[in-house]
User: Which sequence fits this backbone?
């Protein structure tokens, strides 16, 4: 196969190597195995599973991923040193389809670190690629910082690596310095200029320092690259790498102008994105393309109305294509009556015109005070228009805390009757929640407790979210106050009130948030 006549682009995922290099993104052994399995399942062609010489843990992870691999090529990284390459081979050789990836920094700045002359480095490349190829018939070579390497020297070393047996030549934009026009041109000129270039696959590996990684990778493909290196959620050093989900969906959605395709099952994208976010501890930003919480969410009334009539009005891909079960229409202050009616229908709530009017007025009032109105809020509004007041109400809270145990004294109105309780706890919030439980014993488990500061300064409003689970029923509570402990107490009581309403309704469960679960 030659690159020019084949429109198939292979996806090389390096979440477990370059992605894991993000400071703080370390994954456990079991988590790495799980992510590798998901990558293999979704049709990733090559999984860079780690850097075997870097640690005993990396070696074990690469070896086990190699052993368990089904379809994907399993690749390990190695510096341009013989012991690195041997160690890498020891780990990847268990794979059905192993690959050794060896690299060296070729730009003037990177050559200065090992203090090698151009000739000395050329010799090292020849020796190490030959060694790798003697061990494995699938060898990838990368001139690190290629985009800042002198053109003549880059051509020279690429030619040496090809002659020594490399089967894939990766051109890394290590510091995210290139731009799309240059990226396309660089690959095109290398293929035209370097003898033997037709017999290897050219790969692109872009970092996102200027926010151009995905555009640079796609441009490189236009220039002739047929392997894209990327990570899930764009995880990676500094600003990260090209995001797998972005390049894959861009090629799918704009196939009319980018006639290349991948073998990725895009319906697996959302699930793996969420797993990587969880295990790496790197949350996905809300407005991130494809996988962000808001990527398929429409808030303004005009957008929601358009979406309800024809989803294509504001969506260029279907949420189902990336593994979501549907579009989310979170309600906010810009939402109109049509969206509210649709949301109620989706939640299985039937209301008459008068009640809808009443709910809409209350909803607008709430949306003015609250950024996003969740399904649970809507259900609470429905309850408020059909049922009486909250059963539990906070009257007073007094907390003492410091270096010793905290103590909370709480007064609450419970079904119209005032009661009080005092409890000690491990910190002021724990003491407060315990005191509330003394007054309203329950077996609800606290699933989430989150505090966000909504303004700056020590007088910032704290918004607290609490999520409770009881016998499979979920209820959230939110509250804001300049006192974090008061906000916590109110949020907890808010969630308990919702549980009381749910219990009264026979425990019908509803989606916790409008952002749908993965199919
Ligand atoms: O960014 C880079 O240059 C790399 C190489 C090891 C390929 O990650
Ligand atoms: Zn990199």
Assistant:
């Amino acid at each position: 196969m030659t690159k020019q006549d084949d429109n198939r682009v292979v996806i090389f995922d390096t979440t477990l190597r370059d992605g894991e290099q993000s400071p703080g993104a370390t994954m456990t052994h079991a988590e790495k195995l799980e992510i590798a399995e998901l990558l293999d399942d979704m049709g990733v062609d090559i999984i860079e599973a780690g850097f075997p010489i870097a640690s005993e843990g990396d070696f074990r992870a690469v070896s086990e991923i190699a052993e368990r691999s089904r379809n994907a090529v399993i690749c390990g990284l190695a510096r341009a040193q013989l012991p690195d390459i041997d160690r890498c081979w020891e780990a990847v050789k268990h794979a059905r389809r192993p690959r050794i990836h060896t690299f060296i920094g070729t730009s003037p700045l990177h050559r200065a670190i090992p203090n090698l002359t151009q000739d000395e480095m050329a010799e090292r490349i020849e020796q190490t690629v030959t060694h790798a190829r003697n061990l494995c018939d699938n060898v990838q070579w990368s001139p690190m910082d290629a985009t800042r390497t002198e053109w003549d020297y880059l051509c020279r070393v690429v030619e040496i690596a090809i002659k020594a047996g490399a089967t894939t030549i990766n051109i890394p934009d290590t510091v995210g310095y290139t731009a799309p026009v240059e990226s396309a041109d660089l690959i095109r000129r290398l293929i035209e200029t370097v003898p033997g270039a037709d017999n290897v696959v050219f790969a692109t590996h872009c970092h996102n320092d200027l926010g151009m990684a995905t555009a640079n990778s796609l441009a490189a493909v236009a220039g002739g690259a047929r392997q894209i290196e990327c990570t899930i959620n764009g995880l990676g050093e500094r600003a990260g790498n090209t995001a797998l989900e972005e390049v894959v969906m861009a090629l799918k959605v704009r196939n009319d102008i980018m006639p290349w395709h991948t073998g990725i099952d895009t319906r697996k994208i959302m699930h793996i994105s969420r797993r990587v976010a969880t295990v790496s501890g790197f949350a996905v930003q809300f407005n991130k393309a494809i996988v962000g919480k808001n990527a398929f969410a429409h808030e303004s009334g005009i957008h929601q109305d358009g979406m309800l009539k024809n989803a294509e009005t504001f969506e260029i891909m279907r949420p189902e294509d990336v593994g979501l079960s549907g579009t989310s229409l979170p309600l906010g202050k810009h939402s109109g009556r049509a969206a509210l009616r649709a949301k109620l229908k989706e939640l299985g709530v039937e209301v008459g015109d008068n009640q809808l009017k009443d709910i809409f007025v209350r909803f607008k009032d709430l949306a003015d005070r609250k950024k996003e109105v969740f399904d649970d809020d809507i259900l609470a509004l429905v309850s408020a228009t059909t049922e009486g007041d909250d059963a539990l109400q906070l009257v007073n809270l007094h907390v003492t805390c410091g270096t010793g145990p905290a103590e909370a004294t709480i007064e609450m109105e419970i079904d119209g009757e005032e009661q009080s309780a005092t409890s000690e706890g491990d910190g002021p919030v724990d003491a407060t929640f315990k005191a509330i439980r003394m007054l309203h014993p329950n077996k609800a488990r606290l699933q989430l407790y989150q505090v966000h500061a909504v303004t700056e300064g020590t007088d910032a409003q704290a918004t607290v979210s609490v999520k409770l689970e009881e016998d499979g029923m979920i209820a959230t509570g939110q509250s804001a106050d300049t006192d974090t402990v008061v906000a916590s107490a109110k949020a907890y009581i808010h969630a308990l009130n919702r549980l009381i309403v749910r219990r009264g309704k026979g425990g019908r469960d509803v989606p916790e948030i409008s952002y749908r679960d993965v199919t």
